[in-house]
Amino acid sequence: MKILMFSGGLDSTYLAWRLLNNNDDPDGVHIHYVSIRNDCEPLWKKEDIITDQIISYFKSHHFKFQYTKSKFEFFGQQSVGFDSDLILVVAQKLCMNAYGKKIDVLFGWNPYDLTRREIALRSENHITQNIWKALVESTGKQHVINNQLQFPLLDWNVTKDIMLKEMPKDLASLTWSCRQRIDSPCGTCHSCIERKYYEVLNI
Question: Strand, coil or helix: what is 4?
């Protein structure tokens, strides 16, 4: 089974679309969205809406998959750290209840993410992978759960320009990237800058 940790952004939506178009795993694909609600960024407000719209799109195209979601609230906190740390814990719980000869957990990180210093340092020091290995070990199901996270977009070297070229336009238009505003893109956060750059390439 492939478990995709989904956000409704361009990257994870492209990865979900590609997986569902080429669903060769006999145990299927499980898509899970984690709503991390806090005062630091309003992104979750938009994600809560668009994830349901994107899932409805997949269902309308008769893709076969499982879908679940969870939410965590951290209101009143100045910082909640890396979303991925919490998402890893959720992924562990999903794996403990999944059935399959092999369970892989997939993240939609793309090559541009590694150009951000904080992400690059975590990658160089294997922080995310080490957290995941410890979580897998604590399940007692190491023989089933892959203790190596999967980052297909990194392996395929797929950047946003490729995603925008390959994805159906109506699906890409549902995704949201801005981390600062939910009415219109701020144009200044790292997600907006990256997406705008690649959208210009596809004009």
Answer: strand
Which residues, 6 or more positions from 117, have their beta carbon under 8 angstroms from its beta carbon? none
DSSP state of 126: T
In a domain, 45, yes or no: yes
40: CATH: 3.40.50
pLDDT (tens digit per residue) in 38-71: 988 888 888 999 999 999 999 999 999 999 999 9
CA separation for the pair 73, 155 (Å, rounded): 33
Per the domain annotation, does 184 fall within a domain? no
Strands (E), 62-177: 66-73, 104-106
pTM: 0.88
Domain count, the chain: 1
Chain position carrying tokens 């070297």:
157
DSSP structural state of residue 113: G
Query: Is residue 190 situated within a structural domain?
Result: no
> pLDDT digit string (tens) for 59-112?
999 999 999 999 999 999 888 888 999 999 999 999 999 988 899 999 999 998
- Within a domain: 198: no
Q: How far apart are CA 87 and CA 155, in angstroms?
A: 21
Neighbour-count burial of 143, counting CB atoms closer than 10 A to its CB (0-12 exposed, 13-18 middle, 19+ buried): exposed
Residue 37: domain span: 2-158
Q: What is the pairing mode between strands 66-73 and 29-37?
A: parallel
